């Protein structure tokens, strides 16, 4: 391990560069946060980067429970719950399937499995918009149109390629001897998965859960097209709140609403970011 | 590798459903899209066959050429810039900084936010009258101008900046993971031989990041192609259609203009372009990894 | 359950038939009470209040309202969702569709006829022919109009004009001389938001002023190629481009309400925008006639380019919901709703012959001009707001005009060729 270097000019330069980059990355967050704490008059008359003179959480309260998102003016609160009810099953199912697929593809290879994997990987590049109309038709046939389960199905299908990729790469890094030894001992396919592979999966589980949660929580297009009247996710609520086509825009409420919509994913990254990197280190990245 | 005939069917059975559904989803939709691109579909899908008429219309459209050109510029700069910045940040953060945890979170958080959330803030910051230009001028530099967002020729670079902002942190995380996975003994040996730090990085560390580079390139290219929210939130394709990308072109044609056939044709070209770039790379890397 | 005591028996016996009758009628009402799912993008401010008024009137009839709001792009996202819903066999009861799109949807066979309501309430007599024609497909009403926005307005900051000693320009020549005077005073003559629909709004006002109502109808409604490539069109294009130096350099991407804010604050003097701009002035406490002036865009005083919001009715399988849908259509055309909605939204009622007492002066002028231009044949659909031509050609024309506005390398001739080609888009 390299010893902790002392405060040399090179070191100062390093820290300076890191700090400058930090400012670049923080700038939009600062703009959003400060605007959400200002009053509309202040926003209209002061400069973008000015600190709020008398910060108030009024905009946040409005965004949460009083802002109009159509004929209902209940703020983002109802949408928050909808998103939660949709995201948790979608993340859970797609992750579970990814784990199983990854396990099979890495430890139980058969003829054609690599090709199948490559085919699936290519699917990651498909533009989202292509999915909309045909999937609507299919969901209509299945009777799942405009319902939360239809939306969950779409997210699961769209997420399987990525989750499979993550788990397969990770499991490929687990030594084959472990599996060999277990089968010699008489363990079955499922027993190996449950007793040996799964316990070792914590790092990649974190990576996949975070990745899926972020993508599905932040999604707007599938959410607005496939959800039902009572299951609209928070991105739809935010869009209705902030993207109004007329009348006076309350930028402070818009910013507060944006922050509320982004808070869960931000928290996830803030708290679990360390495990995210650790998980990547453990093997999501290797070829 | 265990190969008892008894259990060989079980693994296949386990993955069969999700694989079948996924592949059906992916390739079924691509095929359906292909069919639409050969049809006269306008507002809703219809299946009247018109041969390559939609493709002809597509390549006669000036806006499509602008979108393609933008994809090249944006794609190249976004992927190149994002990878470079991410690698740089990873190397910098690898130097045993006390604030590593905090800095890493700061660089990583943009990935957590969608552009629906951050779009307005970015529009403000890049707007000459409200944002950076105004601010720097207020500080006294009256000649400073940063009107890229409103300049048809330069607006695409603003999209690049916002895009790199969002993804560089993630690239950094991937490279950092890769760096941390490198065997220390090689580095120690090089240090004992008297090699300087930059030289060690250049000659040993970066080359051994090759598998990470591959994964990262896949992820970032995927983000580049999918860049829809980013453009819509920042410029909505404007000024005029100067920042249009194939993804936004496809969406506009198919859904706002009742030209589904045209949109499908553009989507097919997009997929073909991606395939042309990704498939050879996938092939060579997966082949190589099969050693 | 214990047997009711003798003393309680008799009142119950008396009440029982009443209860039965009540519950029967309730059941009957519940049986006919339907639910309408309404797709719209009125998600805030005056518009949302207006939508709430509609919801309330429907609920008063005992029906349910399932709100289906999708904001953004003046309906772009909403249209995407609508298409998906129709494809999945699950269309809403009503959707905010306007202009030629109504015919497009009707052609797909998914709209329901509301002739029953139209005949009962005599819509043919209450709507100008131009408007009712757009609401019909093959002679049957399939959509109901809600309001009338006038697009060819010129909004002026009264103070600025007084200080500059100017009068509202009546022609484009007047406009340019006024603009020159304003520029010398350091005020931006024309506030503009550089988004493609705003560029087209400006352009159509120029075409109206330079070419007149008939030319506008030929070129931008019928898309007649010879009109589109005529000298008049070239002049219109050149006049349009001449406006650019009179706008400020930060215009690209600016939202329309921010441009209006410039006029309100006195940073700019004029804006060419539909009457929804009035809402901004009013919200800022300004009064028409005193703080701001509303006049027709230069040269178009006798013409009225309209943007009419309407709801198209989709075919429903559920009988109760169909009834509710018909009640919705009737409610929209009813005088009470027309007045309430338009007071909140800043537009004028589409139902003719309404009392305009509670509306402000600009609205009153608008209503008078609406009626007179309908008679004179100069009531024209606004191409920039999806009223005149199908979305494919409208979009291509928007692209061409916006490109011309933003590029320094195109001459009026080149732009004209592109415009003519765009008009041929399908």
Structure description:
Chain A is mainly alpha-helical and 287 residues long. Chain A has helices spanning 9-37, 40-45, 58-65, 77-107, 113-122, 129-142, 148-172, 176-184, 189-197, 202-218, 221-226, 234-242, 251-284. Chain A has one domain (77-284): Orthogonal Bundle (MetI-like fold). In chain A, 72% of the residues lie in helices and 0% in strands. In chain A, helix 4 packs across helix 12. The mean pLDDT of chain A is 85. Chain B is built from 13 helices and no strands. Residues 1-6 of chain B have low confidence and may be disordered. Chain C starts with 5 loop residues before the first helix and ends with a helix. Chain C has a five-stranded mixed sheet with strand order 2-1-3-13-6, sandwiched between helices. Chain C has a four-stranded mixed sheet with strand order 14-7-12-15, sandwiched between helices. Chain C has 426 residues and is α/β, with parallel strands linked by helices. Chain C has helices at residues 6-32, 45-60, 76-87, 100-107, 115-120, 123-126, 129-135, 158-164, 172-184, 196-221, 225-228, 231-242, 256-265, 277-283, 319-333, 335-345, 361-376, 391-406, 412-423, and strands at residues 35-40, 64-69, 94-96, 136-137, 140-141, 143-145, 147-150, 153-157, 188-190, 268-272, 292-296, 304-307, 310-313, 348-349, 379-381. Residues 1-9 of chain C have low confidence and may be disordered.
Kindly, what is the distance between the CA atoms of the first and last residues of chain C, rounded to a whole number of angstroms?
Answer: 73 Å
Q: Let me know the largest β-sheet of chain B.
A: none
Tell me the distance between the termini of chain B.
15 Å
Rg for CA atoms of chain B: 23 Å
Please report which band the strand proportion of chain B falls in: under 5%, 5-15%, 15-25%, 25-35%, 35-45% or over 45%: under 5%
**CATH fold descriptor of the largest domain in chain C:** D-Maltodextrin-Binding Protein, domain 2
Gyration radius over CA of chain C = 25 Å
Count of folded domains of chain B? 1
Q: Tell me the name of the CATH homologous superfamily of the largest domain in chain C.
A: Periplasmic binding protein-like II
Low-confidence segments of chain C, given as residue ranges, are: 1-9
Which residues of chain B sit in consecutive blocks of at least 5 with pLDDT less than 50? 1-6
What is the count of helical runs of chain B? 13
Biggest interface, chains and residue tallies:
A-B, 94 and 103 residues
Mean pLDDT of chain B: 83
Write the CATH fold name of chain B.
MetI-like fold
Q: Report the structural category of chain C.
A: alpha/beta
Would you count the extended β strands of chain C for me? 15
CATH superfamily of chain B: MetI-like
Q: Can you tell me the CATH architecture of chain B?
A: Orthogonal Bundle
Q: Could you spell the SSE succession of chain B in H and E letters?
A: HHHHHHHHHHHHH
